[in-house]
Amino acid sequence: MALPQSLRISVIPPELELIASEQLVEIVPLISMEKTAFISGAYGPLRPPNKSKIPLWMAVNLKMKKKCHIIAPDWLNTEFLQERLIQETSQPAFSSLPFRFAEIAKVILDVASDDLENPDKLRSLLKDLREVRQAKSRDGLKTLDHSELSASHL
């Protein structure tokens, strides 16, 4: 993605995905693995078919090696996202969504779309949510009074 020069020193989308990858997700392992220690913590043991909670980065790694199935978070389903989209379009306030929902959804959809129900519909709903939220943000910026932002070097 081409960004203006002024924004190139800030956090870029892949970095946000990396940060979001610390979130714990549930998996169904296809292999057995003893408890393993990493810098971020110890995870495991993994015993199929028992579910386990591990960081998203580890789940992605195992999924790419075909060693697990990722279970979608509770909010990553069409009913929940459709409900939030209706709230976004019918109310002036932003609807409540999990922190880093867009980044987590993108990572899971990119790597484990075969583990999700109706991934194309999920992508469409997430895109619609993003567009509605961007429109709300733009409209909100238009209503700002410049006198309220008169701090030097802001």
TrEMBL record:
SUPFAM superfamilies according to UniProt: GINS helical bundle-like, PriA/YqbF domain
All copies of domain GINS subunit, residue ranges: 75-147
Domain (DNA replication complex GINS protein PSF2 N-terminal) ranges: 13-71
Gene Ontology BP, a term: DNA replication
Record-linked CDD domains: GINS_A_psf2 (cd11712), GINS_B_Psf2 (cd21694)
Entry similarity comment: Belongs to the GINS2/PSF2 family.
Pfam family, one: Sld5
Endpoints of the signal sequence: none
UniProt keyword annotations, A-Z: Chromosome partition, DNA replication, Nucleus
A cellular component term, taken from the record's GO annotations: GINS complex
Subcellular location as annotated: Nucleus
Predominant localisation class: nucleus
InterPro entries, sorted: GINS_A, GINS_bundle-like_dom_sf, GINS_Psf2, PSF2_N
Name of the protein this chain belongs to: DNA replication complex GINS protein PSF2
Taxonomic superkingdom: Eukaryota
